[in-house]
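Researcher: Let's try something more involved. This one mixes different molecule types, so please make sure each is placed in the same coordinate frame as the others.
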Amino acid sequence: GENVEQHPSTLSVQEGDSAVIKCTYSDSASNYFPWYKQELGKRPQLIIDIRSNVGEKKDQRIAVTLNKTAKHFSLHITETQPEDSAVYFCAAPRDTGRRALTFGSGTRLQVQP
Amino acid sequence: NAGVTQTPKFQVLKTGQSMTLQCAQDMNHNSMYWYRQDPGMGLRLIYYSASEGTTDKGEVPNGYNVSRLNKREFSLRLESAAPSQTSVYFCASSGKDGQETQYFGPGTRLLVL
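Model: All components are placed in one shared frame. Result:
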């Protein structure tokens, strides 16, 4: 099965700075990599995902990059705002059947105003 | 559209008691999932159901059973609760398989004394 490692576990930035969270995965056949955001006391929600046929995807201030050779993908948040403060989870397909996901352990992002 | 709903929101059990967590979705999704979330450990998959009539074990299935009652409903049962099962439980659903957006319910906070 897939093994997903996520770093760092906590990240503190000043408002307006950029934040980068990195995940590595073990199964070279994996081809779908979503990122979820969970605000305090709320449910996780998808913010962006990338499939293996592209190397980068952007949506306003967030972007995800994928390096299939090195088996890692990263979430980039630019011009951070206090409302970006949350826990972010990466994920990858759990197995070759692609019927479920394995999640990383999460990164708590704190944006200081 | 209520999305994914879960009951109860909060439950206190004594060691050895049993209970069933209920989950329902109104998005006509094929796949449904049960996760537990513990501090610092991300979202760990307990069981999932790729389609009506099928269920599969996830990373941490011991001590749990599930039933995919119909396409809408997926329940999680604790037969004999243990303090180690104190956690927040999330149900989720996705349209086709694990490579589509997962929509999460609001969660059930379970405390086992």
